[in-house]
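thought: fold this chain, then report.
action: predict
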Amino acid sequence: MLESLKYLYAPAKNKTEKISRQPWLVMLLLKWAYLDPLANSLLPRPGISKDRLLSILQKVLNLSDSGRMPFDYADVRLFMRALAYQQFFYQKDDQFSDLARQELIFAEVPDNHYFKVNFEKGVGLSVEVFIRLSMALIVHIGNYGFCLSRADLFALCPPYTPFEIDAFLRAVSVESSQLQRFLIEVEKEASGSEEFLRQTPFLQRPLIKHGPYYFCVSTHVLQRSLGHYIYDYLKRDDVNGFNNPFGKAFEKYVGRFLEKTGLPLVSERELIKFLPGTGGVVDFLVADGNSNILIDAKGVEMGLRGMVSVTQGDIRKATKTSLIKAFEQAHEVVSRIPETSKHSIVRRGVCNYLLVVTYKELYVGNGVMLEGVVGVDVLDKIRKSYAEEFIVPLENMYFLTIHEFEVLTTVVANGKIGFVEAIERAKKADAQPATQNFNFELHLRSWRDLIGPEVPLLDVLKGMVEGMAALVPRSEAVEGE
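observation:
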């Protein structure tokens, strides 16, 4: 383990060199090492040199190339999705925004809310304290490397009690002696070449405890794990009980950012009231100039099979209640708009756009890609139910993660770009193979000269840090200055 961590944490000239170490393969190798029956033998296995480690990693890489090649898939984008799911989060370093989002969704609720009650009951720690200790742990690992002790966390977080520190460390770590059992339980559904596409099981427990020390398997795994920990834990604990309250909270959260834009806005409840007839509706409708922007919040997460699948059939099943449902709801709304009585916001006979917002990445960038990964027949079946003038062009549909949506609505609110302008810019780029982007975040990055850098939840993070600092006794704060 130590040689693997030294390899990952060694200084790098730039991000490209860092990612070229292929940390997803190192995580896979670590998993296999601890699943080996010899891992818990009385006689420890001999140490490994860096050269030997690199040789083994090369063999793992060669094994990963033995399965399907990109053009063996029904659509090459199926291959790209699976690859993105496995690897993309290792290329991101802005995961503090995920902690801030958890603060807004899971902490800013009443004390008797489902989120708080069930998390504290299971973890033994409040949502608020967990998020703040997560911040401290990420900062410590980023500054001091992959190893820390219990005392290190105490020194970094003097406001918190030994009970809270211990509960936190238990939640995010696994004893090395119990690691094999943990991995067997988490990986019980893994099979064959699918292992090369799965995300690492260390996302559940990013720290390995050995003796008095805790070893962080990867900074990116740590950030990703803690950034979604509360969501993942509550969903894993009781998926049926969690989905309904989270769906409502997520829709409210999306509406909160839409309101900041100052654009005319119609909610789902209002749409149900004034649209004639019956049928599904989207969560929001925003008027931007002479266009309708239909927005649907889909807080559900796609299952593992849908994320790593190589078949369109599996993707169809996985998106039936999310992306495909949003596609159908958008057409139902557009087809009913012409028959409405006069409404000051909804536009008639104009261009319609659809934005679907998901909590986590589904890696389906736009409507064209949706058709590619679920199949033309599925969407054609829906389109045939509507007159041609009510069809929303695939090019007018984008599927955004909540992070992408936060950035987009922030720059719209700041007057740097409009919804329609943003979608049309993305459409223009995506119309040509040489300029098309895999997801909307890449479009946002390409517009930096226009919109500048945006950190939508920076004020939330500052408030959390200031709140933690205020809890530190004055004498300790003075000593640290």
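thought: worth noting. The beta strands are 147-149, 173-175, 207-210, 213-216, 265-267, 284-288, 291-298, 352-358, 397-401.
final: tokens above.
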